[in-house]
Amino acid sequence: MGEVVKLLVQHRTLTWELAKREFTDRHVGSLLGAFWAVGHPLLLMGVYLFVFAFVLKTRVGGTEDLPLDYPAYMLSGLIPWMAFQESMNKSCSSIVDNRSLVKQVVFPVEVLPVKGVVASLLTQSVASFLLVMYVLISHGGLFWTYGLLPVPFLLQFLAMIGVGYALAAVSVYVRDLKDVVQVIGLAGAYVTPIFYLPQWVPSLFQPILYLNPFSYMGWCYQDVLYFGRIEHPWSWVAFVFFSVASFSVGSRLFRKLKVSFGSVL
Predict the structure, then answer these.
(1) Side-chain half-sphere exposure of 111, counting CA atoms within 13 A
(2) How far apart are CA 37 and CA 35, in angstroms?
C-alpha cells in the first residue's frame, strides 16, 4: 500500500491532467460539450426523483427521526452510488483502452484507473454541492454533520481506487467483466437502501442489505447529509474497513497482474 500511495503522490499532476481530459474530452464534438459530463447524471437523478417522489408518491421526513424530505434522503445515497458505479465502469476499460500507454515501459500504469476515479468524484462534487444548496434553501440551514463530509469522501476515494485497480487488472484477462459490472451497477441501487428505508424491507430479505458493502457507504452519507447525526455508527466502522481492505487488496492484485499486461494486450 505504501508503494502505491507513494507512486500516486509522485504522479499526482499527471493523474489530475488525465482526469481533466477524461472529464472534458468524453463529449468533445457534441452540441453541449463538457456539460454532459455533469448533465447526464443530473438528468438521471431527475428521472429517479420524478418516478419515486411524484409518480410513486414516496413520502418520508418531517419528523424528529427523519428530519428532511424524501428528495434529500434519496439523493444523499444516490449521488455517491452513481459516482462509484461510473468509476467501476471506467475502470474496466482503463487498461484495455490505453494499450499504447501500457506498452511504454516508463509510463506509470497505476494512474490509469485512478484518473477515472478522480473524474467520477468531480461529477459527484458538483452534484453534492447542488444537494447542499437544495437543503440550505428548502430547509433554511445545514446540520453540523456537513462538516464531516470530507471523511466519507476520502473513504470512498480509497474504496474506488481499490475496486478500480481490481476491475482494471482482471478486465485485461476477462473482457466480459465490464458487462457483469454494468448489470451490477443497474441492480446495485435497488439492493442498497437509497430509494427506501431499511425497515420497509421484509425481515426475510433485510440481511441482503447488511451483506452489501455499499449499504454502509450510503448510510454514512445519509448520516452526514440527511439525518444530521451519527445514526449508524457501526456503518462508519464497516466503511473504514471496506475502504482500507479494498485499497490494499486491489492495489496488490493490480501490481501482481500488471507485469503481463503488455503481452496480453
Answers:
(1) 19
(2) 5
**Domain boundaries defined on the chain:** 2-264
Is the pLDDT higher at 6 or at 242? Answer: 242
Distances, alpha carbon 145 to alpha carbons 50, 90, 227, in Å: 28, 31, 9
Q: Which amino acid is at 69?
A: D
Q: How many residues does the chain have?
A: 265
Residue 96 in contact with residue 175, Cβ under 8 Å?
yes
Supply φ then ψ for residue 239, to 5 degrees.
Answer: -70, -40
Distance CA 46, CA 52 (A): 10
Q: Report residue 48 as a C-alpha cell.
A: 429517479
- How far apart CA 215 and CA 236 sit, in angstroms, is 11
Average pLDDT over residues 46-67: 77
Q: Residue 213, class by beta-carbon neighbours within 10 Å (0-12 exposed, 13-18 middle, 19+ buried)?
A: middle
User: Which pLDDT value is given to residue 67?
Assistant: 84
Q: What is the pLDDT of residues 76-95, one digit of tens each?
A: 999 999 899 989 998 998 88
Q: How far apart are CA 154 and CA 106, in angstroms?
A: 29
The answer to whether the pTM exceeds 0.85 is yes
Half-sphere exposure of 246 (CA within 13 A, CB side): 21
- Grid coordinates belonging to 213: 458493502
What distance in Å separates the CA atoms of residue 162 and residue 151, rounded to the nearest whole number?
17
